[in-house]
């Protein structure tokens, strides 16, 4: 149901947008500079504690404005405003704004109100360069380690050490997937993507004969002389059963920050889980000191992965993907990092004692089973008590906020980032 007042409010917003567009870029830029200057002077009148609180409030306000922006020109105006506003988070906001611009230009995952931006000469000069790579230049990384052409692995491209992320695509949709892969490559080729803990993508590699696409990333550091290893967060949890609370908080906070950064730019992960969070390091290095890199992969069919998907994001009748589904997956990962146990084990211990056995049998027989969900977590007091004991009340609140976020049309708005900030505040 739409009320008359809502219609008038929408009309007023549209009218303001038209007036702003008609104002002229120079006049609009001058107004933005005046506002930024005024805000900067007002900040100086506050004491240090109030200034810090004001910065936090303004940060989430600017993130929400950026998330709701519908055109590249609006994003540019926000970028100009960020230049003059004193905030330690400006670099992250600038990076998110750049990613938002890229998304609007390539027209990926656009909302109904967003407008794909025409590629002018100025925007063309600012866009990352996407390179189509040749599979014949791809070779093994180490002579006794042949390429597997699946998952994520080290290799050499044109003799340069790289990390390759393979994506198997069936032949009948291979060409249809090309645009999606190219869009992802453009996003990950932007230096701003490193703020999302991603390696810098140097190009995409199409290999139709093998029904494969690959995203190829530059490896940081002295890759020429180190033998590197890959470990997922899931691997770390399984390999190191004791991990300090401080490091568990740090990992959780960084993952939450990455999700916030992606959502500010309007990008959705769509397959967030602990075996998609990858750490790379020279062999022999402690895994918890390695630099994290996060990759988006197409969802696979393993039943265990459905544990990270909200019930409304599962199966053939799943709803259109939205930010809340990523936040739910984040909550699942917070439970893992807090308890430092795999989600499958936690599900079996606290939600369904037969889950691991049933899931294994279902995968072997290629049948389906009902997958437990954390939506009823408040009914499992033993799980809540265990997480509180392991991490404290603040972490527990972050977990429950992510899993039990308000899904109403207003508070659960696709553009709202308040829940993300509430989670970070508790971490």
Structure description:
- This protein is of the alpha+beta class.
- The protein has three domains: 4-120, no CATH class; 135-218, Phosphorylase Kinase, domain 1 (2-Layer Sandwich), CATH 3.30.200; 230-426, Transferase(Phosphotransferase) domain 1 (Transferase(Phosphotransferase), domain 1, Orthogonal Bundle), CATH 1.10.510.
- It has 15 helices and eight strands.
- Strands 1-2-3-5-4 form a five-stranded antiparallel beta sheet, covered by helices on one side. Strands 6-7-8 form a three-stranded antiparallel beta sheet.
- A hairpin with an 8-residue loop joins β7 (277-282) and β8.
- The chain starts with a helix and ends with a helix.
- Mean pLDDT is 78; it is low at 1-12, 18-22, 286-301 and 408-413.
Summarize the structure.
By secondary structure, the chain is an alpha+beta fold. The chain has helices spanning 4-23, 25-44, 48-68, 72-84, 90-106, 121-126, 178-188, 233-239, 245-264, 323-339, 343-351, 355-365, 381-391, 393-403, 418-426; strands at 138-139, 152-157, 160-168, 201-207, 212-218, 228-232, 277-282, 291-294.
Strands, count: 8
- Residue-averaged pLDDT: 78
* Alpha-carbon distance between the two ends: 38 Å
Task: Briefly note the structural class of the backbone.
Answer: alpha+beta
Content of β-strand: 5-15%
Number of domain modules: 3
Amount of helix: 40-55%
Q: Biggest β-sheet, characterized?
A: 5 strands, antiparallel
Shape: globular
Name of the CATH architecture of the largest domain: Orthogonal Bundle
- Radius of gyration (Å): 23 Å
> How would you write the strand order of the largest sheet?
1-2-3-5-4
Helical run tally: 15
* Highest-level CATH class of the largest domain: Mainly Alpha
Low-pLDDT ranges? 1-12, 18-22, 286-301, 408-413
């Amino acid at each position: 149901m739409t009320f008359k007042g809502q219609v008038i409010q929408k009309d007023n917003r549209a009218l303001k947008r038209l007036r702003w567009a008609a104002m002229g870029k120079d006049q609009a830029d001058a107004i933005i500079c005046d506002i930024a200057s005024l805000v900067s002077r007002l900040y100086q009148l506050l004491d240090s504690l109030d200034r810090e609180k004001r910065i936090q409030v303004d940060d989430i306000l600017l993130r929400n404005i950026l998330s709701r922006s519908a055109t590249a020109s609006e994003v540019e105006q926000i970028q100009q405003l960020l230049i003059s506003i004193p905030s330690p988070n400006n670099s992250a906001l600038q990076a998110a704004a750049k990613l938002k611009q890229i998304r609007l230009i390539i027209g990926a995952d656009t909302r109904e109100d967003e407008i794909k931006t025409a590629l002018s000469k100025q925007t063309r000069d600012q866009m990352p360069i996407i390179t189509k790579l040749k599979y014949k230049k791809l070779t093994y990384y180490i002579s006794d380690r042949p390429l597997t052409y699946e998952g994520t692995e080290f290799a050499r491209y044109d003799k340069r050490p790289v990390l390759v992320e393979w994506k198997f695509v069936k032949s009948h949709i291979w060409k249809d997937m090309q645009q999606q892969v190219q869009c992802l490559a453009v996003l990950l080729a932007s230096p701003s993507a490193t703020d999302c803990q991603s390696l810098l993508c140097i190009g995409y590699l199409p290999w139709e004969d093998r029904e494969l696409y690959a995203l190829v990333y530059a490896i940081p550091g002295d890759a020429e002389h180190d033998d590197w290893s890959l470990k997922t967060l899931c691997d770390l949890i399984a390999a190191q059963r004791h991990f300090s609370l401080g490091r568990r908080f740090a990992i959780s906070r960084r993952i939450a920050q990455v999700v916030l950064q992606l959502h500010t730019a309007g990008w959705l992960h769509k397959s967030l889980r602990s075996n998609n969070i990858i750490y790379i390091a020279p062999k022999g290095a402690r895994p918890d000191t390695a630099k994290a890199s996060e990759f988006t992969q197409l969802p696979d069919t393993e039943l265990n992965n459905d544990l990270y998907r909200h019930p409304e994001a599962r199966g053939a009748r799943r709803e259109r993907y939205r930010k809340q589904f990523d936040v739910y997956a984040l909550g699942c990962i917070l439970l893992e990092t807090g308890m430092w146990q795999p989600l499958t084990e936690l599900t079996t211990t606290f939600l369904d004692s037969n889950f691991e056995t049933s899931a294994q049998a279902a995968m072997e027989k290629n049948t389906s089973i009902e997958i437990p969900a954390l939506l009823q977590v408040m009914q499992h007091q033993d799980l809540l008590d265990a997480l509180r004991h392991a991490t404290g009340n603040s972490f527990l609140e972050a977990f429950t906020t992510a899993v039990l976020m308000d899904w109403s049309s207003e508070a659960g708005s696709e553009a709202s980032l308040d829940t993300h900030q509430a989670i970070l505040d508790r971490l």
